[in-house]
Amino acid sequence: MWLVQLGIKKPMDQINPKWFEEHENRNQQLRAKGVILASGPFVDGSGGCIVYNCSQEEFMSIIQADPLVIHDVVDYDYKDWNAALSAKIQS
Fold first, then answer.
1. Rounded to an integer, what distance in angstroms lies between the CA atom of residue 43 and that of residue 84?
2. Which spans are transmembrane here (predicted)?
3. Residue 74's domain is classified under what CATH number?
4. Quick check: 35 and 58 in contact, CB under 8 A?
5. 28 phi-psi bin (left φ>0, alpha ψ -120 to 50, beta other)
């Protein structure tokens, strides 16, 4: 599993809203496939966090194709994470 923290690095008035829409549409598809286990923005608007369940190769491909990464909107930090999931998430 991969834990990713995204940080917004541009003022909001310099970010095309379409890029957020593309990012979210893509994330919805990845959630439906079970690749994204959890995701969401930080309440303060500074970025967000995503938990991916995939191989390192697939993870790197996904990150590099993210519209927010392509358009240099976010910095991201990631960790390979051995998470223990609750029964509620596993079912």
1. 25
2. none
3. 3.30.70.1060
4. yes
5. alpha
